[in-house]
């Protein structure tokens, strides 16, 4: 399962290489030939697509949000499935005459067009397409940001979220693509050389910070947290849902970007006005919710704030559990949600091994099941490989903000940022490696002389005392208590097994949990009722 | 002075400005100032590391060393980890930095005896960081405070870096510990802090009211 994950790197960064199969090659040629329109000339657009595009534009310009949402979430994916399963949508040049060269619409169309190529076209986008898509995002954001008065455009939240999310994703994809120098042709290297600003980290940060500023989203969130009306501080632009939501999603985009670059402090800091511990009216997009908690939880884990990581993951995993039926349908969004959920179960397991504590019964039940239970057991036994695997599987795809120079040896540099952060994490694990063993011994007693327990563990007393100090130090973490900023908190010890030393004697305090019957019965009653209801509807 | 600088730097680092390399010189001077005047600003220091990350040509290892040593003085907080995440593998392996890494690892695993021994070997490494040793002692005090109710004098002396009776007395006073006179020092009463917890199930009426209503 882990091996498969790594193939993702391949998948995202593969460039077109001749396959040797003439038919396939011809097909590939078609994609790489982007920009030279004549190749598309013979292709004639089906009427249904023509009609759709005209209707789509009409809806976008009409501002009928519900209809736009329907087109975006249902019709477009449906037509993609039927007509463009593995080929690109018609080129913008062909679409242009149908929509009276409506530039703003064409930019939005191209946003979908390239996103589709990234997601569905085998071999991924060519370097030209990456460039074109980047340029299209620049146009889109310029259009929105440099307008003197707010642009008249309303898009569904889901779409706005996906614009920001995709923007960061394509940056990530390019950064990885850029790092695999060993697979680049001379032409590609030349292209990179003459386009140094292409998907440059500063431009990406600039876009996101500009959207945050333009929308006054931080001021709005602050007012909102205080129970005041955000509109009073939103300003002319920020009052518009388009700007407000782009600003909001940009904060999440920054959270992700900072995490990918290893700056976990800044990652959590950008959300300092967002109330993560309450339900906010801003977040109606499940994918955004889930992504937010994934990255925040991960940042906490890296900062050794385990109790906070556990709270964060638990919160969102319970939310996913409750809303699960929504993600059953096979769509690309749900794929991502399910994948991220799976990763969070692994991260939750890691956090719990490092910092055992009680969690919600229904999540505990899942962790008692197969792949999780075994993984947890191996980590508890101190198998470093298992920690490493878990980290490799569940961590974000870390990036280097500065790609290797074009002249660098044609090697594969993609894994370097990952290895760097994996090392930081594993150093931490290594420092804590003896703690589970010590914990399991402590658990057996209420008092025990230091010397005696050292003998049980077959180590010199001085060494054992050091481990005991380390236990106390590592189990005392900063934990969030109040306020909107996720960085704030106070040092707390949330460990299930705790102790103190009085002279030569260890005094141990354990947490004893009585079995919970109530939950069990309530669940059974619900199940029984459900069965009853189903039975009643059956006709014999 | 320090406060003024802190506010000035904070306002300089708003939004995208945080990534402006033109600020670097000023930030580096601020790092040096922190070391000389025994003040500390994690956020500013992280943005220095971030600028080095974005522009490897600007990298200055002596500044990075200062940042790491300052991060160490803020234990038990995990500043050091945050800094480490922003340094590439080959930087971490440079001799100067790797010495600092060894020291941090010893502190994180509470091997205080080895830490003081290792530090003694490091010569002038910490000369430029005002109050470094006492900051580390404060961390030791923190760990002792959460671990011990009473501690043997020799053990405590060793943890604090083989301090003499005079210095030990100062710390005992500063930390409101009490010399029991029997070779032990009373740290704090832990009985109330470290207690066995019994978690029993509480079922509130509201939790089951719905179900009960259904069954009628």
TrEMBL record, chain A:
Q: Which UniProt keywords apply?
A: Cytoplasm, Initiation factor, Protein biosynthesis
An example Gene Ontology molecular-function term: translation initiation factor activity
**Would I find Cytoplasm among this entry's keywords?**
yes
- Give start-end positions of Basic and acidic residues composition bias: 20-30
* Biological process, per Gene Ontology: formation of cytoplasmic translation initiation complex
Q: Does the keyword Protein biosynthesis apply?
A: yes
Q: Where is this region: Disordered?
A: 1-30
| Record-linked InterPro entries | eIF3l, PCI_dom, TPR-like_helical_dom_sf
* Complex formation: Component of the eukaryotic translation initiation factor 3 (eIF-3) complex.
Q: Per its record, how is this protein called by name?
A: Eukaryotic translation initiation factor 3 subunit L
Automatic annotation (TrEMBL), chain B:
The entry's localization annotation reads: Cytoplasm
Q: Which residues form a coiled coil?
A: none
Q: Which Pfam families match?
A: CSN8_PSD8_EIF3K
Q: Identify the main location.
A: cytoplasm
UniProt-recorded Gene Ontology molecular function terms? ribosome binding; RNA binding; translation initiation factor activity
| UniProt cross-references to SUPFAM superfamilies, sorted A to Z | ARM repeat, Winged helix' DNA-binding domain
> What does UniProt give as GO cellular component?
eukaryotic 43S preinitiation complex; eukaryotic 48S preinitiation complex; eukaryotic translation initiation factor 3 complex
- Alphabetical list of InterPro entries matching this protein: ARM-type_fold, CSN8_PSD8_EIF3K, eIF3k, PCI_dom, Transl_init_fac_sub12_N_euk, WH-like_DNA-bd_sf, WH_DNA-bd_sf
Q: What positions does the domain PCI occupy?
A: 40-202
In the record, biological process GO terms are: formation of cytoplasmic translation initiation complex; regulation of translational initiation
Q: Which UniProt keywords apply?
A: Cytoplasm, Initiation factor, Protein biosynthesis
The record's subunit annotation is: Component of the eukaryotic translation initiation factor 3 (eIF-3) complex.
Q: Which family does it belong to?
A: Belongs to the eIF-3 subunit K family.
Function summary: Component of the eukaryotic translation initiation factor 3 (eIF-3) complex, which is involved in protein synthesis of a specialized repertoire of mRNAs and, together with other initiation factors, stimulates binding of mRNA and methionyl-tRNAi to the 40S ribosome. The eIF-3 complex specifically targets and initiates translation of a subset of mRNAs involved in cell proliferation.
Q: What is this protein called?
A: Eukaryotic translation initiation factor 3 subunit K
């Amino acid at each position: 399962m882990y091996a498969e994950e790594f193939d993702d790197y391949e998948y995202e960064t593969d460039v077109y290489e001749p396959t040797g199969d003439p038919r396939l090659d011809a097909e590939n040629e078609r994609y790489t030939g982007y920009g030279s329109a004549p190749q598309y000339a013979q292709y004639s657009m089906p009427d249904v697509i023509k009609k759709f595009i005209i209707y789509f534009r009409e809806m976008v310009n009409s501002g009928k949000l519900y209809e736009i949402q329907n087109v975006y979430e249902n019709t477009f994916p449906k037509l993609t499935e039927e007509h463009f399963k593995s080929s690109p949508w018609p080129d913008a040049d062909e679409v242009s005459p149908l929509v009276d060269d409506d530039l703003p619409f064409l930019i939005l169309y191209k946003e979908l067009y390239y996103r589709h190529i990234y997601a569905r076209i085998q071999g991924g986008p060519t370097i030209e397409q990456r460039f074109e898509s980047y340029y299209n995002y620049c146009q889109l954001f310029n259009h929105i940001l440099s307008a003197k008065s707010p642009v008249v455009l309303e898009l569904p939240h889901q779409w706005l979220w996906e614009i920001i999310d995709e923007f960061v994703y394509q940056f990530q994809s390019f950064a990885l693509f850029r790092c695999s120098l060993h697979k680049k042709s001379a032409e590609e290297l030349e292209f990179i050389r003459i386009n140094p600003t292409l998907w440059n980290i500063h431009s990406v940060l600039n876009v996101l910070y500009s959207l945050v500023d333009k929308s006054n989203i931080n001021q709005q969130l602050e007012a909102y947290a205080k129970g005041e009306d955000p509109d009073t501080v939103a300003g002319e632009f920020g009052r518009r849902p388009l700007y407000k939501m782009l600003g909001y999603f940009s904060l999440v985009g920054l959270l992700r970007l900072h995490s990918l670059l290893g700056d976990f402090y800044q990652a959590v800091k950008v959300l300092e006005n967002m109330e993560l511990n309450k339900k906010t009216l801003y977040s109606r997009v499940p994918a955004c919710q889930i992504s937010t908690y994934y990255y925040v939880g991960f940042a906490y884990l890296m900062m050794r704030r385990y109790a906070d990581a556990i709270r964060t993951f638990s919160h969102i995993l319970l939310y996913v559990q409750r809303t699960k039926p929504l993600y059953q349908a096979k769509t690309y969004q749900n794929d991502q949600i399910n994948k991220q959920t799976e990763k969070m179960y692994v991260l939750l397991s890691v956090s719990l091994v490092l910092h055992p504590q009680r969690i919600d019964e229904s999540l505990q039940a899942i962790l008692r099941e197969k792949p999780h239970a075994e993984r947890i057991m191996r980590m508890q036994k101190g198998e470093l490989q298992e920690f490493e695997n878990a980290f490799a599987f569940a961590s974000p795809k870390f990036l280097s903000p500065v790609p290797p120079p074009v002249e660098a040896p044609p090697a594969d540099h993609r894994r370097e940022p990952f290895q760097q952060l994996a090392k930081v994490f594993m150093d931490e694990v290594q420092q804590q490696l003896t703690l589970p063993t010590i914990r399991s011994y402590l658990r057996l007693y209420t008092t025990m002389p230091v010397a005696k327990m050292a003998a049980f563990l077959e180590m010199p007393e001085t060494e054992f005392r050091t481990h005991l100090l380390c236990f106390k130090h590592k189990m005392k973490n900063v934990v969030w208590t109040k306020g909107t900023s996720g960085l704030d908190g106070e040092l707390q010890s949330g460990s299930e097994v705790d102790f103190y030393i009085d002279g030569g004697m260890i005094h141990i305090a354990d947490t004893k949990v009585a079995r919970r019957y109530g939950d069990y019965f309530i669940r059974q009653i619900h199940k029984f009722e459900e069965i009853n209801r189903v039975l009643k509807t059956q006709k014999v | 002075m320090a406060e003024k600088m802190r506010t000035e730097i904070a306002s300089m680092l708003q939004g995208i400005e945080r990534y402006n390399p033109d600020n670097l010189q000023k930030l580096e001077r601020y790092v040096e100032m922190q070391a000389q005047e025994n003040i500390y600003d994690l956020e500013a220091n992280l943005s220095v590391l971030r600028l080095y990350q974005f522009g490897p040509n600007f990298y200055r290892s002596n500044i990075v060393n200062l940042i790491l040593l300052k991060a160490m003085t803020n234990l038990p907080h995990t500043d050091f980890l945050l800094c480490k995440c922003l340094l590439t593998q080959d930087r971490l392996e440079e001799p100067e930095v790797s010495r600092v890494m060894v020291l941090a690892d010893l502190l994180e695993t509470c091997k205080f005896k080895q830490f003081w021994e290792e530090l003694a070997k490091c010569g002038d490494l910490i000369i430029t960081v005002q109050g470094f040793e006492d900051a580390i002692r404060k961390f030791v005090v923190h760990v002792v405070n959460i671990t011990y109710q009473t501690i043997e004098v020799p053990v405590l002396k060793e943890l604090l870096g083989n301090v003499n009776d005079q210095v030990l007395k100062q710390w005992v006073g500063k930390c409101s510990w009490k010399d029991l006179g029997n070779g032990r020092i009373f740290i704090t009463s832990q009985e109330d802090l470290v207690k066995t917890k019994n978690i029993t199930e509480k079922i509130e009426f509201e939790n089951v009211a719905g179900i009960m209503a259904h069954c009628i």
